[in-house]
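Tokens as discussed.
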């Protein structure tokens, strides 16, 4: 059975030791030293060899925590107090940190965030994909670790006990809305828009609102995707361009192309490109964006990627083609992975904001030596949070096993 990459890894006990039994129960207060930081942001410690996950802690800290969940092989607890803080601990900038579910790392120095994200990605690629962790390069930092988000999703919810409408983000510990007046990682213009939304609130709970700063020179429909960090976007483009140029490909297939960003940005580095996207509104915007940017050597196709990819690849010389994948967080569907293995383009550039599903998909693509993973470049498009963007470079290596 394939491992579920969304489940935190439970550190293994000694091979010959029996499975430890939790020496505590739900509601107990425990003391433990945090020794690791798992993907997703939870600190890892042990009590009598029993693994405990605790949020909002730093490796090296001695903490007191209250147990909230006990399973066969691990437990979870909420931080009660830090007894001995780590040198990397800092004061969060946001008053909602720990209640709002948006950020996981504001308590951690930014340089430490980058180091731990790098380790987490390397661990995931080794555990989920079976790759050498050395393939993962150091994380490219964001030049602005706060006030960088150009898009936020806010919600309304009727607070019955307080008899008022809460407006803000979903809490990290339940399905309730955390009422906020500002967001530390959102651009200032979005905080102004948030205050205006609060001044003119929706008539009831259950309403979602997308607050967005549109990128200059790009048409983006309300519900279509665009990268949410303008400050690190040039580095993301530079990374994909460097890897594309290194391959020498003459054609580019931009799968899950959205409003055409990668195809248009990289179109000057190839003879031709084609983008495919299910969102018809995004495709219309992509065509308009190509005209705006004077990009005439490509086209955009509206439709399901799995259904359209076979025909698009059949038109091109696979030995001269790069396929750029930028799917949703859930990753690529098996039919597309099987097609890419069968057709064998010379290069696959896989852009993902979820390293675990990325490692899973790359393992399938590389199975039997069909492709070789040459490099994974993480970029911190989401400072203060558990998320990180990665660009993976795969090259065709051998025939199908």
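Sequence:
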């Amino acid at each position: 059975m394939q491992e579920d990459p969304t489940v935190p890894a439970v550190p293994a006990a000694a091979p010959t030791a029996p499975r430890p039994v939790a020496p505590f129960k739900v509601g107990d207060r425990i003391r433990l030293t945090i020794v690791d930081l798992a993907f997703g942001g939870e600190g890892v410690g042990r009590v009598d060899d029993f693994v405990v996950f605790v949020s909002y802690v730093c490796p090296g800290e001695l903490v007191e925590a209250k147990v909230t969940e006990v399973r066969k092989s691990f437990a979870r607890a909420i931080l009660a107090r830090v007894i001995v803080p780590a040198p990397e601990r800092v004061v969060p900038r946001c008053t909602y940190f720990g209640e709002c579910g948006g950020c996981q790392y504001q308590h951690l120095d930014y340089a430490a965030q980058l180091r731990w994200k790098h380790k987490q990605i390397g661990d995931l690629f080794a555990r989920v994909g079976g790759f050498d962790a050395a393939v993962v390069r150091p994380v490219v930092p964001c030049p602005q670790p706060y006030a960088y988000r150009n898009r936020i999703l806010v919600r309304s919810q009727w607070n019955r006990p307080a008899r008022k409408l809460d407006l803000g983000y979903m809490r990290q510990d339940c399905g309730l809305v955390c009422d906020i007046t500002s967001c530390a990682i959102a651009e200032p213009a979005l905080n102004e828009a948030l205050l205006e939304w609060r001044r003119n609130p929706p008539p009831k709970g259950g309403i979602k609102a997308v607050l967005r700063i549109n990128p200059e020179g790009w048409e983006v429909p309300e519900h279509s995707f665009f990268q949410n960090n303008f400050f690190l976007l040039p580095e993301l483009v530079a990374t994909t361009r460097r890897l594309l140029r290194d391959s020498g490909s003459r054609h580019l297939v931009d799968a899950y192309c959205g409003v055409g960003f990668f195809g248009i940005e990289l179109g000057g580095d190839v003879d031709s490109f084609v983008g495919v996207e299910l969102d018809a509104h995004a495709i219309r915007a992509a065509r308009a964006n190509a005209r705006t940017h004077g990009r005439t050597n490509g086209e955009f196709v509206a439709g399901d990627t799995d259904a359209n990819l076979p025909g698009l690849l059949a038109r091109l010389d696979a030995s001269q083609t790069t396929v750029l994948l930028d799917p949703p967080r859930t990753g690529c569907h098996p039919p597309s992975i099987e097609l890419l293995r069968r057709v064998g383009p010379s290069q696959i550039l896989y852009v993902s904001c979820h390293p675990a599903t990325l490692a899973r998909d790359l393992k399938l693509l590389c199975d039997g030596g069909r492709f070789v993973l040459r490099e994974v470049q993480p970029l911190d498009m989401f400072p203060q949070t558990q998320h990180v963007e990665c660009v993976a470079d795969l090259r065709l290596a051998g025939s199908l096993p």
